[in-house]
């Protein structure tokens, strides 16, 4: 029950930040094709997170390479369709720098950390940490874009922090320590 309360608090905190504390903005919410793509992505991510606990006993980098190959095969037709329509990436230094950044941080490192989190905490507890993204986005917007710090930022951060603490405290107290199973081929964290 404590984990359910934590999940609800964490999601509420993310909503407070995303909606700038104005829940009435949900009334005028309109969906477009991109929203449908995001909903499908959330569903696929849920399956991925749940099935991570049953991954084969291989090194994390080998598993990640296989995952990325499947992902590449899935998005390849969309890339080819865009290329055929003349939508090409500009061959500039900034473009390649952005591609390198996306390959390293939100792809390789984030997946390694998330997969390890699922291994240690389980998919439900690890997924809670995805609610930290609006907090990070807010901090970056305040620092880089000079967005004013609002009450909703603080309220959302407190709710997310309380939700994560509430949901994972039960898990930590019930844990028996680090895994010593043959599955533990993890990288040093």
Descriptive account of the structure:
It is a single chain. This protein is an all-alpha fold. It has one domain. Helices cover 70% and strands 0% of the residues. The protein is built from 7 helices and no strands. The two termini are 30 Å apart. The relative contact order is 0.20. Mean pLDDT is 85; it is low at 185-189.
Which secondary-structure class do the elements indicate?
mainly alpha
Strands, total number: 0
Oligomer: single chain
Helix content: 55-70%
Which spans of ≥5 residues are poorly predicted at pLDDT below 50? 185-189
Contiguous helical run count: 7
Percent of residues in beta strands: under 5%
Q: Quick one: overall form?
A: globular
Radius of gyration: 19 Å
Order of helices and strands: HHHHHHH
* Mean pLDDT over all positions: 85
Highlighted features:
disordered C terminus; single chain; globular; mainly alpha
How are the SSEs ordered, and which strands pair?
Elements: H1 2-18, H2 33-51, H3 60-84, H4 93-121, H5 123-128, H6 133-144, H7 151-174
Helix pairs in contact: 1-7
Short description:
The chain is built from seven helices and no strands.
